[in-house]
Amino acid sequence: EYTKERAEIVRANDNFFRELHTTRSSVYAQGLKGLENFAPEGRRAFIAMLENAITSGRETECLVQNIGTGNGTQEIWTHNRARLLARNGSSYLFYIAVENFTERVLLERNLRATSEELRRAVVKLETENERNRLLIENMGIGIFDYDIITDSLHIETNIQGQGVLRRDIPHYYDYLLKTKLVPPESAGTLRVLIKEAALKPVSSTLVYQANIWGSGLCWNRLVYESLADKDGKVYRIVGHVYSIGSKPQKLVAAQG
């Protein structure tokens, strides 16, 4: 029953108490003043629902957060549908159906938070990609990412006449034995690097020979780091590579 911004529960069935995760005795002990079950914003929304039902003569609805019911601090949201049954002077009698929407509200909130996190991650990734592109174009370096689990290499380099290109090379460990872009000695050195870097996190450099830039074989310096998860298991090797322009006296790995 609703009278001038005051609402009281006249009668409620067992489903009402179940939807609010409470009991009949708990609600009756707190009194039957319905509007006190809502925070101020929810109270205004609930009153607006009732007023709209009075003026329109149609069923109206609202979604509000409930307080003063349930088990203490538990967050409870209900979807309420109101239909005017009768009027007696300034008092109005309503039939109100209540459905617990808590799981749906929390799910939507989590989805929004996840979407925002994804948006920020995309912005960060786009920023990193742009920074990498500028480094690749202006400093003549290649950016690589080797996935140990899938044995796949992803590398971006500035190829003469083609600009910045991304190459994805599956089965990279065996690819090194077949490709003509890496001489056998350097291919063997890179395979050793992969095996050793996969054992534990390491940061190091390596000098090797390869045709990375599309202009024939040259000597390159590889700066790399292997990344491990919280359990210490290495899952990635990342870093950059650049041409050193002249042949070194000896092919060696320089520890960083």
Description of the structure:
This protein is of the alpha+beta class and 256 residues long. The protein is 35% helix and 35% strand. The chain has helices at residues 14-19, 24-30, 40-56, 102-139, 172-178, 184-197; strands spanning 2-3, 6-7, 60-66, 76-88, 91-100, 141-147, 152-159, 163-170, 203-210, 218-228, 234-243, 253-255. The longest helix has 38 residues, at 102-139. The chain is rod-shaped, with a radius of gyration of 34 Å. The chain starts with a strand and ends with a strand. Residues 249-256 have low confidence and may be disordered.
State the separation between the terminal residues, measured CA to CA: 77 Å
Please trace the helix and strand order, writing H or E for each element.
EEHHHEEEHEEEHHEEEE
Radius of gyration: 34 Å
- Can you count the helices? 6
Beta-strand share of residues: 25-35%
Question: Which strands sit side by side, in order, in the main sheet?
Answer: 8-7-6-11-10-9-12
Report the strand count. 12
